[in-house]
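Hi support team,

I'm filing this because I wasn't sure whether my run with 4-O-methyl-beta-D-glucopyranuronic acid finished correctly. The job status page said complete, but I'd like someone to confirm that the output block is well-formed before I use it downstream. Pasting the exact inputs I used:
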Amino acid sequence: MVLKNEDGYELWLRYHLVDDAELLAVYRQQIREIVFPGDSPTLRVARGELQCGLEGLLGHEVMLSESVTEDGAIVCGTPESSAKILEQKLVDLDTVGDEGYVISQQVVDWHQTIIIAANSDKGVLYGVFAFLRLLQTQQSLDGLHIVSAPKVKLRMLNHWDNLDGTIERGFAGHSLWDWHKLPHYIDPRYTDYARACASIGLNATVLTNVNANALILTEPYLHKVAALADVLRPYGLQVYLTARFSAPMEIGGLSTADPLDADVAAWWKAKVDQIYSILPDFGGFVVKANSEGQPGPHDYGRIHADGANMLADALEPHGGICIWRAFVYDADVQEDRAKQANSQLVPQDGTFKANALLQVKNGPIDFQPREPYHPLFGAMPKTPLMLEVQITQEYLGNATHLVYLAPMFKETLDADTYVKGPGSTVAKVVDGSLDGHDISGMAAVTNIGDDRNWCGHPFAAANWYAYGRLTWDYTLSSEQIADEWLRMTFSNDEDFVDTIIQMMIDSRESVVKYMMPLGLHHIFAEGHHYGPGPWVDGIRPDWTAVYYHQADAEGVGFDRTASGTDAVSLYNPPYRDQLANVDTCPENLLLWFHHVSWDHVLKSGRTLWDEMCLMYQEGVNEVRQMQQTWETLEGKIDAARYMHVKKLLVVQEREARWWRDACLTYFQAFHGKPLPEGVEPAEHDLDYYENIVHYYVPGIPERRFDKIGTHS
Ligand code: GCW
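And here is everything the job wrote out:
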């Protein structure tokens, strides 16, 4: 059978006919009518989703019924919206809070039914999506009893979308938000965006770039925001904006943005009041301040908490929150960049208002292929810390490399801070349980644009999906999430699913190997970060590559032990001791923490240089393996998506070689040692790689180029 071509627009919400005839027959028996009273906007969209999903999956319309009339009813609602749910007195509802749900097989009015119940309309919507997922992944409904609630309260996406439609670090087209046509024209795609987010439990979205434009806070734009929020609201998505710290000057006519200036505070209060008058359920602000040239309280000799608290004060009467980013480092400060956030923020622990949170990147530098967890986790017990991850692949091959990020997100979540003894994981800091915070959250920089398939690479949507699922339940395994996503996105063919799960799981480690093995970091091409640039030098040191790898004739790596910057002391024992010792430091972080001789012998018995070479080669080999694996699956999915991935894997293999050759040629020049056996020699000399220039790489605002060079 030839499968119909698909363009990926439907994401994982493909409600195609269940292709297992036996199972389909069983489902048709088990699902015969829908009892779903209630008329709130959220219940309406939940009901619509259920009807549409079932119609597609079962191949016929399932009728709505006022009451349970036969076996096979699906009864949905809250104790308020549905008399039947109220009657059931489900004890499990007491445990799922205001967003969780219960899906359970029950006898109602002497008939076999499936109940989808929650304490809120939003919970019902999440339950409906979870139920549809069961059918999409062809699970048995027999004896169904699922009790599920999110582990983290704020489950956010951060769009780095600019008002001119470009997306910082976006590789899948332009912004979805059509500011020009808003508020009058509402793109139907907004609804599909909201459906996708709600289906994985996301409940908040920050519409604008953290490198913020104050215009978004002006009245005309606020009306555009409100129109968009009207579409997202029924799906439980609350809207947040980024606040440019200097807005009082740029759009308010004040001469200062000093957070301790009474006029400035009054301006923000009035601004926030205005926002809430236009958008009564506005979520709050996300702020990047005094980082990479953004304005902030330091400009006035104030501290981060002064800035955050001023905004938190303005938001507090409306129930809004202020999320302050902990991605702070200063070009003029000599201190190791990996320590600066701790130096600036730890002393301010306990001084932030109750409605202020700090948003902390997974690692202390910047979304590198591998970083140790950020040492702020565990170091600020009095402040709720959100985890920020990056879904968009700024440092992971943009939208051309197949890299599944769930293992990377989980690496951070599962990392043990040991701050209150073993088991004090980052996840427990983030969900608030370790330090008893009520408010908790996760944020991710999205990879979504207006490409027809949303995220560019057909596999990139897996990372949006995985992130959402992990915000709901970070104990899910990467395998389980990949399994769900593959079945819903491509096919339930067991052979296909099993083969590709493994390929996805391995893909993260492969990209680390061909880009930055053994703890190397930040050796990207300058500015656009597309491709290797270990030679980058001559700009502010903390944006160069040479600052991070410190290669010389003797060795390579950044000494962050006591003999170096001592960043290692920000971690707690016993992990600290493990990291500090070159013999016990995990080898995948070796060059993050140590400057190591090229001849240093690793666990494999090989020297560092040989090991590094072999890892780069292994990375390339693994991409080749991915190509072969993918090709065995021709015909198991539609030809269009099959070919799309196949062609992108060709690009990925080519770029993996580019990484290997550029980096090894560069490092080899320090010591002249030969490549070990098994490592393919580079095609070109170092000069060639250093002179590769790419123009107009997506993801950065257009810049004039000042260098004409080889185009690889
Ligand atoms: O990863 C870096 C990016 C910047 C980004 C910054 C940040 C929005 O290179 O483009 O700016 O991080 O997180 O603020």
